[in-house]
Amino acid sequence: MTSEHWKEEPEAEDFPSAESYLTLLVGLAAARKLAKALRKQNELSHFAAEDILRASGLSLLSAHDSEVASDLEKLKRGEKLSPVLLIEGDPLWVADGYHRVCVSYHLNEKTPIPCRIVSRST
Q1: What is the DSSP secondary structure assignment for residue 111, as one 8-state letter?
Q2: C-alpha to C-alpha distance for 61 and 77, rounded to whole angstroms
Q3: 8 pLDDT band (50/70/90 cuts)?
Q4: Whole-prediction pTM
């Protein structure tokens, strides 16, 4: 997967989605703080899909998963995917973009994915 498949910035709705997920892990106050840090982080880091999955402990979703299939169709139409939002730690938390990581893996597991990443101690 080449960079032409990725947007420069996350979608606005990615941040509330990340906050909602993170609330399940660390509670509302800490989740808001992490989501705010992700919004403020303008630098993109790049990591291979295989490394994100390994570091997070998440399983690869099938290309037939409805969200993965939908994103694959977006790419076929020439639409771009939003960068992935990550929280550094052991394990790595994919705050938003798990399906996009799986899409990238199915296309080429080694191609770097643009990510915003912040530390849990932010």
Answers
A1: S
A2: 21
A3: very high
A4: 0.96
